[in-house]
Amino acid sequence: MEKIVDIIEAMAHEKNISLESAVGAFKEALIKTAKRCTTYSSAFEATVDMDVRDYSVEQVITIVKDDDERLESEPDAVISLKEAQEEYGEDLELGDQLRSPFVLEDHGRTASFNLFKELQYHVQRQVEQDLFEKYRNKVNTVMIGTVNRVDDDDNTFVEIGELKGLLSQRNRIKGEKFKRGDTIKALLRFVSIDPEMGMFLELTRTSPKFLEKLMAKEVPEIEDESVVIMASARIPGQRAKLALKTDFPNIDPIGAAVGVKGTRINAVSSELDGENIDCVDYSPIPEVFITRALSPAIAQSVKITSAKEKKAVVNITSDQKAKAIGKSGINIRLASMLTGYTIELNEIEGVTDRTGESSGNIPEVEKTTNTDALADLFK
Length: 379
What we know:
Layout lengths: L1 H14 L3 H19 L6 E6 L4 E11 L5 H4 L4 E3 H8 L8 E5 L6 H29 L5 E9 L5 E5 L2 E5 L15 E12 L3 E7 L3 H11 L1 H4 L3 E9 L3 E8 L6 H6 L4 H9 L4 E6 L4 H8 L7 E6 L4 E7 H8 L4 H10 L2 E7 L2 E2 L5 E2 L12 H4 L4
Parallel strand pairs: 2-3, 7-9, 11-12, 14-15
Antiparallel strand pairs: 1-2, 2-4, 5-6, 5-8, 6-7, 8-9, 10-11, 13-14, 16-17
């Protein structure tokens, strides 16, 4: 018996799993082997004592009501109360358990062979479970790995620790090309299990969360949460917007994110294949937030037409309309993604100068005496 316990310790060390996990796998192997030697409807409990380097297996039969359905489905795991009292004594009650030792050695070499097979299987399952838990706890973190190969569909396979990562074409920034041996960074989206590939890590470089994590690595104020990213939006490889907030009056959130001469934000942009990153001050007031999100365009006024459906109309002069829309509509799309509002532009007459003041006929803006939105500023 001591020899078997020694094997358990050696397996735990070889497979790099905890001794507790290895012992748990051994218990499962003992129970499965005992069922193989008897019937699969039997119930067993295994005990392993590492201090005295011994183990034991017991067959367990539970006393149930005389009309219990398990008497049909699990005849070797249960016994009726009437039969138990007749055979083992009148003092037995419902729920009591009849236990008898099961000696594996009495079942010969076949039992030993089955135990070894079951032990290998359950140890491997425990290894996989530990790996799954390890990487599941790293979901939404940046992983660094080495490109192993690129297949015909441009899927990039990356070596990351004990597992392989998959960076599919749709999760890759348009125009990016990788070759074997390249070191890349990507965000871990999921830990997946596939019948053909086994366990693998699904990676992405297009998620807004990837941008946020890269910013946190480059900007200490974001890492220590003195500056908070309230929202982010990306069109991968082209342009992105970040909404920043701080509760510290001595910190400029945009200045902190950009860095001296743009060093911080340029480092992130380089990692994202030259993606332009705009930073704006977050506001809990939707009208103010939408105005800032549309920068560099200068809006004249913003009206929320439906708070429930999150729709807004923005009055803007003709000279600012092109800026608000952006090339191929990129600016207004990002502003909409950042704020969560569907933004409609309403062109008005006039010209907006650099200060934001306009000349010309501007429609009268509806005024309100409701100051509920302002209260959010002082929370």
